[in-house]
Design goal:
234 residues; alpha+beta; Glutamine Phosphoribosylpyrophosphate, subunit 1, domain 1; four-stranded antiparallel sheet
């Protein structure tokens, strides 16, 4: 019922997930990221607990394949689940259960993983892969979005469109981007529109937020107002 792209930006080390589905609020249960650790997408008949379980194992030093293999606990529903993972080094592991509804599979390589189920065909994932590689000059967030839109243009979820999400973590414990469209007849395009809105005052404000390197952030109201005004004029 879903397809997703997980990627690690080679330059910054950022981890990101873009996902779309004919399922309400897909961004609430599929994407899981931990800064400096890894990223997980749990989909098909999604088990959200696998997200934190796999990330915990990665954080403890397990390989990406071991973390995926050993995180299931008492869940014996692997045949109907699809999970794919990248660790902080860009290593990939994936599981597509034998009872996931077709078309279903996973593709990828170093720094990139795509997976989907209930798709119109393999072309959806291939379009995502091709677009991500072709748009290497774009900023990381835009590269993920264009990849998602390419999968949508190739047919996406065979049941239609409803929800989409983009989540990116850089070096902080909080996300750099975490935007969702929970219910919209053209969710991937609406997600791209929401992202464009965020390029104004919100993107400018992010520079003032406290970080590990600058625990106080910036609190000068005049400086913030000047940057906001400039952003709104662009």
């Amino acid at each position: 019922m879903t397809w997703s792209i997980i990627a690690r930006d080679r330059d910054s080390g950022s981890l990101g997930i873009a996902v779309a589905s004919r399922f309400f609020a897909v961004g609430a249960i599929v994407p899981w990221i931990r800064s400096g650790v890894g990223a997980v997408a749990s989909q098909a008949m999604a088990n959200p607990t696998l997200g934190s379980a796999i990330l915990d194992r990665l954080q403890e030093g397990e390989s990406v394949q071991s973390a995926l293999d050993n995180a299931w606990g008492g869940d014996d529903g692997g045949a109907v689940r699809q999970v794919h993972v990248l660790d902080r080094h860009g290593n990939r592991a994936a599981h597509t259960g034998g009872d996931c509804i077709g078309w279903c599979d996973d593709l990828g390589g170093k720094y990139l993983s795509v997976a989907g189920n209930m798709l119109v065909g393999r072309g959806v994932l291939q379009a995502c892969l091709n677009e991500y590689h072709d748009k290497s000059a774009l900023p990381f967030a835009e590269r993920l979005l264009t990849s998602l839109l390419a999968g949508d243009a190739a047919g996406g979820d065979k049941r239609g469109k409803q929800a989409a999400a983009l989540k990116i973590y850089t070096t902080e414990d909080y996300p750099d981007w975490d935007i969702r469209v929970d219910d919209h007849p053209d969710a991937p395009a609406e997600l791209a529109r929401v992202f464009r809105v965020g390029q104004g005052a919100y993107a400018a404000y992010k520079d003032f937020i406290p970080t590990r390197g600058n625990p106080a952030g910036v609190t000068d109201r005049e400086q913030m107002a000047a940057v906001r005004a400039k952003a709104e004029q662009q």
